[in-house]
Structures are given as structure tokens and as C-alpha cells.
Design goal:
Helix content is 30%, strand content 24%. The chain is α+β, with helices and mostly antiparallel strands. Among the domains are: 119 residues, no CATH class; 157 residues, 60s Ribosomal Protein L30, Chain: A (2-Layer Sandwich). The strands form five sheets. Strands 9, 10, 11, 12, 13, 14 and 17 form a seven-stranded mixed sheet that branches. α11 crosses α12 and α12 crosses α15.
Length: 558
């Protein structure tokens, strides 16, 4: 039977760590000493104690929500197993903070924790079990309540046209109520974030219909000068023709082996995106997952590509730097669900750099600007910020084109497990400012795990280094809309069947809806010809990251 016990480490007079450790049996004295050395400051076991160093009545303890294991826990459990501590299944780290005498405790807690992933511990943990039962799938009562049934669904970004379209489809053509999974899937998949309806739609300006869409105008540059273009306006990045070079690659990709010189044609690759809405709501995680998503775009180009370097840029409203008053900066209101310009500049920059540092990608260039002015009675400014992230990579010329889906291909997931984070982000970021509930906005922001992405990157890199023997046929990263979007990208033309419960779950309390549409990141879906090329490579227990086969693609639409 698994039991829980605590160890403590003092950081300073105002902070200490509490390590909550789950073990299938009591540890021996020798094992406890090893564990204390692992958790210690500078491998000095005496810095770790069995009793809290701070018993002040104004100490509050804040730690991860119990329904999912953190990335930190996964790494610590791996270290423990490597050190022979096989009985340890989970270690979560909580912070014990001393609240200043004159500060309100609740206000202090609100300012010092991420309410999406953390909570206050009122007493020492006895178990990681939450007792929460996943919510069952339910029907949306369109047949009984009509189109008004959509109004009871929080976080819905559909306009009246979409609501009428789906009402007609399910009620008049299918003669049934849709499930909540179907509606939220459509909500994400057909949002502006995912489908770019505005960018591709007809433009009517001052009553005059424009001949070209915005997207067609942008593509004109390629139409008039296509020379050298390898990939453009499709896939996850763009690439131009490169050169054949001599470089060093492992003699046996994916295994410890010497580096050997090889000749390969590499094409320079560039991708860029913005992560504005998440960065405005929660600057640090918003910017770090913006960087992570853009890195995955590089890796997911063609049949896999190599990451090289990144860039970042920020556009915000007035900064109002304390002690540095500027005459043009007026004190104007900011929406309560968005951070201020100065906080975004500092925290978002920290988030983007933190992710790049942990992944191993250098940030080599960037820009920033602030603007927020009243002009002839109208306010113009970057209240909803711009968080720009760009990435440079290189792509083997043999891996330019993704393969077509074929019968008997399997869909394989590589990367981190499913968590209840980034729920409905594609839809939330497509709403007009102020349309959504601020709590739902916060829930829609993803949380990053750069170390898992680095592990996943090694898999893609090893496949790419196999050259002509690359076992990846099609690869797409998971972003807005979660598995619901990325799976449709994979099986769009062939159809496919997916066993939703084969998705690796890091949070056992997640419902089917949350598993299917939440944007937990650091994950790829890929097609591989399992029988002919992947059978020998596919051994789930052999890798330091989750790897699972879901189901095969077929020529039938399900």
C-alpha cells in the first residue's frame, strides 16, 4: 500500500521546501539517506530534515494540485529509480512561505501562486488521491431547447451563423442531440484561431467588396517570385532551397555512437507565430508555451526538421515604470483579465527565455515596443499584447513532403501526458476582448514542460538523422484544439479510428471532453508504417518519455 511522508529543506528565513513523497513501502535508513542527498542543497543530506524548519503561524503552504503529477515529479522519480529507490512513485514539491505581518494572507496567496496548477495546503498531505470522478459525456439538448441550448455552454465562441448551421445539421439532418464533446470539438476546430476565417474570408470595406482576401494578398509575393521556395503557406514552417554540405551525424541515430561526416542537403527553415492572448492573461506561461509551440512547428515541418535558434518580440501598452514617470503615459484602465505592460515585458521575457534555456535553443534576436495613446477621442494601444516568436531551423531535402495516409498506418503519440490545461484556448483566443469569463480565459492558458519537449525533440532528431530510412511518414504537433485538431490534420483525407482511452493520461480525473480538446503541449501525433518500418523500433518501456500507439488509419471515414 502506498503511503505519503514529508521531508523539508530551508531556503531562507521566509521560504522552505516541503517534499511530499509517495512510496509503496517504508524506506530503509540507507534509502532515506540517499533520498535526502538527492533532495539536498549541494548533496548535503543534513540540509534536509523530517520536521518543518518554520512553524510560524503565518506560514502558508502552496503546492501543485493533486490531480496531476508535475514535470518536476516525473524527473525526480526518474532520478530516484536510477539511484535504486524503486518504491518511490511520486514526489511533489510545495513551498512554505512566511506572510509578512501587515499583509493579508488571502491577498498574499493570490499573488504567489498559479491558481490553474497550484493550491494551498491547509495541513500536511496524507494522500495524493483526490476522490474526483471524471465528468461523464452528456448531450446538448438542442432538440428540446432549440438554439438557446448553446447559451448555457461556457466558453463557446460560435457566432449566430455557426450555431444555426450546427443546429440544422444535428436536429434536422441527424435527428439527434450532439454530445458536448462534438460541440466543443467544432467550437475549437472552426474558431478563427484554427481556421483563419477572417484572414481567408471576403473583405467588404466601406460597403465595397474587395477582389482579394487578406491571405491572397500575402500569397501574391510568392506567386510573382516563387524561385527558391521549397515550402510556403502550408505545413508548419516555410523553407527555401539550401545547399549540400558535409556535417557530423551519429553513426547509429538514437543510440550512443561516434559522430561521422555525412553529405546532406539542408534547406533553411523559418517559422513565426504570435501567442498574444495567453501572454496577456498569464505572461510567463503564455510566453513559454508560445516558444514551445513554435519550436514544435519547426520539428513538425515536413517529415521532421532540426531546431537551431529563436527570436522573440513584445508589443505592450504603457509601462508606468515606478520612479520613471514619462509625460505621455496616461493612467488609463486595463481589462481585469490582462496583465499590465511592465509585468508582460518582464514575465513574458522570462517565460520565453526560460523555456528556450531548458530546451537548449538560444534566443538570438528580438524587439520590444510600448504604445497606448488617446487620439481624437479614441484610444489606440497594445492592451492585448503581441508576443511574437520566430524560429530558425534546417530541413533535410529528402524530408520535404509529408506522405499520404495509407491503410494499416498507426497513429503514434510521442511526448507528454494529458493534463487539464489550455482548455478551449483556440476558441478563447478567437473571442473579442471581454466576451469570455476571465476565469475561463485563465483556464485556457497552457503550461509548458521544456524538458519533456527536449526528450521528444531527440526522438524527432534521431528519425531525421536516419536520412532515407526516416520512419516518420507524417508528423503534426499538438496545439490549439488539442487531440481533436491534430488528429483531424492527420486523417483529414483518409479517415481513421482513435481509441481515446489509449491517450497517456497524467491526470486521472480528466473527462473525455477534457482529454480530447485540452491543449496539453509537448506532444506530437505521427503516422508510421508500423508493420514494415516501425515494429522493431516501437518498444514503449524503452524510452524516457510516453510513447503509445492509438489506432490505425484506414481508407474509411468514421
Amino acid at each position: 500500500m502506498t503511503s505519503l511522508f514529508q521531508l523539508y529543506r530551508k531556503v531562507n528565513d521566509n521560504k522552505s521546501w516541503c517534499f511530499n513523497i509517495a512510496s509503496s513501502r517504508p524506506l530503509t535508513e540507507e534509502e532515506l539517506q540517499i533520498l535526502r542527498s538527492i533532495l539536498a542543497e549541494g548533496f548535503i543530506p543534513e540540509t534536509v530534515s523530517t520536521t518543518p524548519p518554520d512553524k510560524h503561524k503565518r506560514v502558508v503552504e502552496i503546492g501543485p494540485r493533486l490531480n496531476f503529477a508535475t514535470a518536476w515529479s516525473a524527473n525526480m522519480v526518474s532520478i530516484c529509480k536510477a539511484a535504486g529507490l524503486d518504491s518511490i512513485s511520486r514526489i511533489e514539491r510545495s513551498r512554505r512561505l512566511l506572510v509578512p505581518e501587515k499583509e493579508d494572507i488571502n491577498a498574499f496567496i493570490a499573488a504567489h501562486h498559479d491558481r490553474m496548477t497550484e493550491c494551498r495546503y491547509l495541513e500536511p498531505l496524507q494522500s495524493f488521491d483526490t476522490g474526483i470522478i471524471p465528468e461523464a459525456v452528456f448531450d446538448v439538448p438542442l432538440m428540446e431547447q432549440g438554439i438557446a441550448a448553446f447559451d448555457d455552454l461556457p466558453g463557446l465562441s460560435m457566432d449566430e451563423h455557426d450555431k444555426n448551421l450546427y443546429y440544422d445539421y444535428f436536429v434536422n439532418k441527424q435527428h439527434r442531440n450532439p454530445t458536448i464533446v462534438e460541440i466543443m470539438d467544432l467550437n475549437n476546430a472552426n474558431s478563427e484561431h484554427s481556421r483563419h476565417g477572417f484572414f481567408r474570408g471576403k473583405q467588404v470595406i466601406d460597403g465595397e467588396k474587395r477582389e482579394k482576401t487578406l491571405f491572397a494578398m500575402v500569397k501574391e509575393t510568392l506567386t510573382k517570385n516563387p524561385k527558391g521556395s521549397k515550402i510556403a503557406f502550408k505545413d508548419n514552417s516555410s523553407a527555401i532551397a539550401g545547399y549540400t554540405i558535409t556535417t557530423l551525424q551519429p553513426q547509429q541515430p538514437g543510440k550512443p555512437s561516434p559522430l561521422v561526416p555525412v553529405e546532406v542537403t539542408f534547406n533553411p527553415l523559418l517559422t513565426a507565430e504570435t501567442h498574444n492572448f495567453p501572454t496577456g492573461v498569464a505572461p510567463f506561461p503564455g510566453a513559454e508555451t508560445g516558444t514551445g509551440g513554435r519550436i514544435r512547428d519547426v520539428l513538425g515541418t515536413g517529415r521532421g526538421a532540426f531546431v537551431m535558434a529563436g527570436t522573440a518580440g513584445y508589443c505592450v501598452g504603457n509601462l508606468h515604470i515606478p520612479g520613471y514617470s514619462l509625460p505621455w503615459e496616461e493612467k488609463l484602465p486595463v481589462p481585469d483579465n490582462l496583465a499590465g505592460g511592465l509585468e508582460i515585458e518582464i514575465s513574458a521575457s522570462d517565460g520565453a527565455s526560460d523555456y528556450g534555456n531548458k530546451f537548449g535553443e538560444p534566443l538570438v534576436a528580438g524587439f520590444t515596443r510600448s504604445f497606448d495613446l488617446q487620439c481624437e477621442g479614441e484610444r489606440w494601444g497594445f492592451l492585448k499584447p503581441i508576443m511574437f516568436t520566430g524560429g530558425i531551423g534546417q530541413l533535410d531535402d529528402r524530408h520535404i513532403e509529408k506522405a499520404e495516409a495509407e491503410e494499416k498506418m498507426v497513429i503514434i503519440q510521442v511526448g507528454g501526458p494529458a493534463y487539464r490545461v489550455g482548455f478551449g484556448g483556440g476558441a478563447a483566443s478567437s473571442m473579442m476582448q471581454g466576451e469570455n469569463d476571465s476565469g475561463l480565459d485563465f483556464d485556457a492558458v497552457q503550461r509548458g514542460d521544456a524538458e519533456m519537449e527536449q526528450k521528444m525533440s531527440r526522438v524527432v532528431r534521431a528519425c531525421c538523422e536516419m536520412g532515407a530510412k526516416n520512419i516518420i511518414d507524417v508528423i503534426h504537433d499538438q496545439g490549439a484544439g488539442g487531440p481533436a485538431n491534430v488528429l483531424k490534420e492527420l486523417v483529414e483525407h483518409a479517415g481513421g479510428r482513435v481509441e481515446i482511452r489509449n491517450i497517456h493520461i497524467g491526470d486521472p480525473t480528466m473527462s473525455v471532453l477534457e482529454i480530447y480538446v485540452a491543449e496539453y503541449q509537448e506532444s506530437y501525433r505521427r503516422f508510421a508504417l508500423y508493420r514494415s518500418r516501425c515494429a522493431k523500433q516501437y518498444h514503449p518501456g524503452r524510452y524516457p518519455y510516453p510513447l503509445s500507439a492509438w489506432r490505425d488509419a484506414t481508407k474509411n471515414l468514421y
